[in-house]
Protein 1
Amino acid sequence: MLVLALDTATPAVTAGVVELTDAGPVERSVRVTLDARKHAELLMPGVLAACAEAGVALRDVDAVVTGTGPGPFTGLRVGMVTAAALGDALDVPVHGVCSLDAIAADALAAAPALPGRLLVVTDARRREVYWALYDGALRDGDGASRRVDGPHVEAPVALAARAAALGAVAAAGASAAAVGLPEREPASPSPAGLVAVAAVALRSGARPGPLEPLYLRRPDAVEPGARKRVSAG
């Protein structure tokens, strides 16, 4: 099964072609560009370059997997809308996965003997971070790990103060340094990590539900209230 994997939940604009084999996800190509302000300009060129490097056409793709955050509204929307449009045009299923889950899958695949829990921490802007907690001992055959808490948004100082109480022994993600634990790679999800999280659903052939973004914050824009009455003077 050939899967196109996308993520724009972090400053990394990620696209790749992954072959889901019996032994797990195998990356055929990866394109990652770091630019938090140009997700829209960079994603589709990255998709086309990844397909060219893998020697496949878009019509050869069997499914699309996209990170659903948590992440800033504008960047996250670019990846999810692109994934939905490609799925519709190619008539293939589109699976959404938590981007933090994919980072955890990558980090734990590189550290299979991690003796404890892993915090995944990414930048939420506004002097806050997104985070989720994973049990390193609980993972499936494709490398996906079990999330035991989160995702949440919180000030990094508050998270650092209780990281030990959460049982975390290491941290991964773009803001891992903020919690003062030993750091693990990667800073952003890889195509293989994204597919590892979706592997069970991909193998089952189940029809995915609608894509739901993980914003975790209320939108800044609010519906205007009723206009104030002006009394006649």
Protein 2
Amino acid sequence: MRGHGPQTIIGSVFVTVVGAVVSVLLTAVVGDGGSESGTGGAAATDAVGTAGASSAPTCSGSECDGLDPKATGCGAGARTLEYGMTGTMRLEIRYSPVCRTVWGKLTGAEVGDTVEIQVSPTRRQSDAVQTNHDKYTPMLSLPRAAQDFTVQATAVAVSPKKREIKQGDELTVSVDSTDLPTGPPADRTDRPTDGRAS
């Protein structure tokens, strides 16, 4: 029986390293729609200089209704208006000042959990986590600046998996027209809302 020479060991290490790099790259490309800026969805904020920031958004206002914030470029430079947490789930209302749109973003969830965004009185978009732990909804446009409106995001723990959150628990956060920022970009990451699961 022949022993393994240095070339065999080096070859095995090379194949292992290449396989790991390819796996990481595929995960980054395929993803689960968790991060509208393409960075994986784990970060609380998305920097203005992330993917898609170099090109102008492809839609604005009502043209964006039902579209993906990442694919349209609206996710670049977006900010968090409000967020809440329960267990590992974090729910955010994301806002693009350039596109004048909002969407719900859910992280730390399980497959099957749902996220919904609603702009008063009845317009809504929703989605469910299909793989990994993150998901965001398609966008909804906001009414004209002079109009009063409310935005509400809701996440539901649908997965029966044993976790800190009970199956059926809901997490809701909301803002209204007075909460839209007028100054320089700043995420509301310093203080979570109550985030009670009900």
Protein 3
Amino acid sequence: MNNLETERLYLRSFEKTDGPALYDYLSDEEVVKYEPYKAFSMEEAEQEAIRRSGNPDFYAVCLKDGTLIGNVYFSKGAFDTWMIGYVFNRSFWGHGYASEGVQAVVQHAFTTLDAHRITALCNPENTASWQLMERIGMRREGTLKKNVFFWKDEQGNPIWQDTYEYGLLKEEYRV
């Protein structure tokens, strides 16, 4: 994994000692509201930091002073298509850090990794996420109706949710 740098951010591999910083945002129910997992305990966050430290699909997104404020997931699939996702500490929402970090990974993918296409998925209720995708030039390619569930109701029935699918081709990308 290549470390990436922007005007305000440094994106690096996770370190085994990043557990407390992961806990700062993955323990926040508002932050994980649309994720396929519940809020983390400190022990779970410490284990997740260890797991991510060996996983090249996760970038730890840090301010220039080293403060870990979020992560970008970026994984290669078939046909030179990459999937991107992101989660950021709520204390840093609204300052453009997520857009800046995601944009750095997208630029790296198209200029260095020779990616053909980048895709992303989000819950339609997650307005901030799909607005970020559109802001960086991704296009909404469709709405998948009731295609996924992460949780079940009291009777054990799946709680289905829709998904927006976004994409960006290399020839569409503008620095």
Protein 4
Amino acid sequence: MRRALLATSGASALVVTLLALKPHQPPALQAGSRSPGTPAPTSSASGASTSTGTFTGDTVQTRYGPVQVAVTLVKGRITAVKVLQAPDRNGRDQQIAAYALPRLTQEALGAQSAHIDAVSGASYTSQGYTQSLQSALDQAHA
């Protein structure tokens, strides 16, 4: 009887503790906030410009290393995105980049903009990718 009471109260305390915890989200990724010195992303509608060429985005410093992309446009449509820099300090960074970057590129080609979903497990790389892509698109539409 005593063991059952002890196990029940221990399980109850654990559940209450877990429910009280808030999920962790890096400050730079919270809605409406940006890291200092980072310009706010701007909307770039496809078809708003007939730009053709390759435009290099800004290098974005992330927690795990720099991210930079170059975008190729033909008559204002994104036809290719080339990753120029990605985090690669260690094997884990390389593994995440190898997983996330092709998915981010496919998202960008499908969306025809920098307004794409982040890849789970690669939040910082995704944020750097979209910021660099947006800066390249801004150059193309300037």
